[in-house]
Amino acid sequence: MASFALTIKNRVPAKQKTAVSQSDLQTWGLHGIKLRSYQLDGVQWLSQCLQNQEGCILGDEMGLGKTCQTISLLVYMQGAGVKGPFLVLSPLSVLENWRKELESFAPSITVLCYKGDKEKREELKMDTEHTPFTVLLTTYEICLKDFSFLKSWKWKVLVVDEAHRLKNQDSLLHKTLSEFSVGFRVLLTGTPIQNNLREVYSLVSFIQPSLFPPDQAKDFVQHFADLQNRPALVAELQSVLEPFLLRRVKAEVAADLPRKTELLLYHGMSALQKKYYKAILTKDLDAFGNEQGSKTRLMNILVQLRKCVDHPYLFDGVEPEPFMMGEHLVKASGKLCLLDSLLAFLHKGGHRVLLFSQMTRMLDIVQDYMEYRGYSYERLDGSVRGEERNLAIKNFSTRDVFVFLLSTKAGGVGLNLTAADTVVFMDSDFNPQNDLQAAARCHRIGQTRPVKVIRLLGRDSVEEMVYSRAASKLDLTNTVIQEGRFSLLDQAQTAASSTGLQLSEILQFGVDKLLASEESSIRDVDLGNILGHGKNRPDHMYYYEGRDYSKEPSAEDQKSFQRLQEEQRAELTEDTGEGPSLRYKAGVCLAGPLGVSRQKRKPLTAAQLELRHQKNQESAAKRAKLHQDRSRKLEEQKQKKKEACLASEGSSESDPTAIHYVLGDVTHPQAGQADAIIVHCVDDSGRWGRGGLFTALEMRSDEPSKQYQQAGSMKDLDLGNVLLFPIDDKLSRSEGQDQLALIVAQLRDPSNHLSGIHLSALEGGLKKIYSVARRSKASVHLPRIGHSTPGFNWYGTERLIRKYLSSRGVPTFIYYHKRTTNMTSTAPPAVPPAAQPSTSTPPPSPCVPTPASPGGSAGPARGWDIQAPGCGTRSPAVLPSFMKGAFVLFYNLPATEKKRLARYLITYDGDEEDIMSPTVTHIVAEVTHAFHSQELQDLLRRYPQAVVTQTAWLDACYSRQMRVDPTPFLVPFR
């Protein structure tokens, strides 16, 4: 094949110098920003590429201002008479930032933010027919959904932010965008080279398909395969990429940027973590015997060990139910103990923190911890929707919020969070580029304070190995980018095995020291000495200096692991029934059966076999009786402890918007004289179940099975549907009506396999139930949905219940069925059992510590307490409705403050509005900047029916239990 360099030289003209100055850009419409010299150079380079190329890659390091350089290019084109249309694609998390910067820096450019649900997007499509725009701004996902509409336009420029999404030329996004009619393509990415030459070719083939046809990717890779041995090829590859790729790093062009310091903080593990760490390692012994055939099983073990190092409560069934706040949340995990000390130190010093984790369930636990300690926070992950994302980012940037909780995937790209000066990684990504992207959220242009990037690592655990492999990979990738040594790309991609270590060996790292003792290895940390740059740095910390601190399992680790295997096999071999017993550890869910290889033994005589059989039977009988006695005692102790704890938490003063937890039978709701709605989740099969709640409901009424089966025969059991009907035909209360709401939240396939509960379906069902409950003033009663279901997201479920029911003023009760001490099932009683409600904000008690949550904020999704029997029957209070007719839009309020005010607004029969409309009667706002005043005045001109008040107006209404005149509380405009 002909030389790529020669082809480029012949077909890509040399760039003509263009004189683009700051004053020129200002003349053409750039306002509110003064470009740095390197940014101006970047705009000139982009304008040069525009003359003779189909596209280019702006690959500046994260935080150097790729967005403003791109906006300047669009302004340059507008000044040259090109009015658009321009298409900009970005992740959802940064869509709002693009809109704001376009409107701020280029007000003459008309922006259409194309997002929302299908109906909203249809409205926007119709608007484009008579409302001109210059830039259409949308996300990758919407682009794929509405590709036929977007494909119909002839775009002058296509901008793809975070363009490493296009590194696979076989991906749907790559193929879809390649079909668009585009004059010029601009790819923005802080990590233009991550893994291999094929990814490099995917990017350049997208921007310059005439020179890099997709079908020549294999030829390209083969042509440059021998870079390491042929220096001439290195120079050729650099010359091939040079016209299309511009890459600058902070060290070269932003020397005035405050220093970034990276630290590793090591922590020990609690006794509970060690117990589960050992259980995970010894559960699937055969996986370690066949590396190639068991790679998936070994990777699963690695993931489970990482979860264990984060927090043992990530495993289902480990945290005791009912979920209660307390120091146990911190003490159960060495990582959370270290985080507790770290955040206390940072809070005292006035620092602000971005906290990243790979696992959203770990963020759930940290969020509970934040509520327990009373720290202010915002959160952004994949479950947080568009408007809530924007509000979270805005609140953190403009308010004194201490911590921003982010998932590395959803919050690690594109955001500008320079209000923070500290980044904390709870765990490390396998791809170090993702962590770099995340750290760049605050270490970027606009940062005025030194930045610390702190990574928490479990001492003598697989976390050390994961980080070490990632550091090796990052070091090699940097060498590739900076020195053009592309032959190292494949080494970088497989850096985790660059030392020849097998995955099974990596899992053994640190076993000797970690499991030498079953006691907790958590130690106090002198953070003042570490973060304050003290002279005597302890051995649980080091500053990262760019070197590869590779680690390997020691000989002692391997011996200790072999000893663990032998002990486990010996324990399994003792059970000589029909085969080795499978002793699965509670709460640990790993893939693959546990098989144990058995050693051949000398054959036994008939007499010996008979004697052994007799002894085995006796031993089995003893073990069975011992196990039964132990189980009964444990269950009795657990039940007594639960009842004692619950009994101590009765409260005469309760939060009317809290969830009530009840020990009793949900089919006989404790609703006093009010109407009640019982909620149950079903699948879409139309076949009524047996046992448990299904049988209990049949004892109560004939309607449930009848209505459900009839809906099934009519094909009316789609996900999210709700069947609502009365169930007072067999048993009824003297006052109040009971209804049953069946939410279709599960799918059952033709093979009778049942799916888990779909939270989206549950959410839709709860919305419908709220509407009915609000109209009829009924209380809602639910069982502990998903109880004992492996992998079930109870946190998300309780968050939905709180969001759509209790926080909106609907009395909500969650029932825990009281088990008998002999653990035998009993039929539901013919009369309601005694079960008394109590709220989830009890007074201090020995069982549940009082949270230090300011501002009356509701606790997180873990229940704060549970109702106890024998506390006296109380009916749900009839709440006043003095806020009826008040439709309130909250503007620029912190999340915790908005949550508090909205909760009571809905409780007292008011309504919260998400968007401005003619129905809004009040805008409750905090004005912290001049542009807030301007925006609010613009809203009042468009919607004169509304008044703008301070938060003190709502507080006055709540405290006086009446809707007061808002005039004294109006926001003054200058």
UniProtKB/TrEMBL annotation:
Question: Where is this protein found?
Answer: Nucleus
> In what residue span(s) does the BRCT domain sit?
878-971
What are the residue boundaries of the Helicase C-terminal domain, all occurrences included? 338-492
**What top-level branch of life does the organism fall under?**
Eukaryota
Q: Offer an example of a GO molecular function term for this protein.
A: DNA helicase activity
Composition skew (Pro residues), residue ranges: 829-852
Checking SUPFAM superfamilies in the record gives: BRCT domain, Macro domain-like, P-loop containing nucleoside triphosphate hydrolases
| CDD domains per record | Macro_Poa1p-like_SNF2, SF2_C_SNF
Cellular component terms per the entry's GO annotation: nucleus
State the residue spans of region: Disordered. 612-654, 825-866
Keywords, A to Z, come to:
ATP-binding, Hydrolase, Nucleotide-binding, Nucleus
| Name the record gives this protein | Chromodomain-helicase-DNA-binding protein 1-like
The major lineage groups are: Eukaryota, Metazoa, Chordata, Craniata, Vertebrata
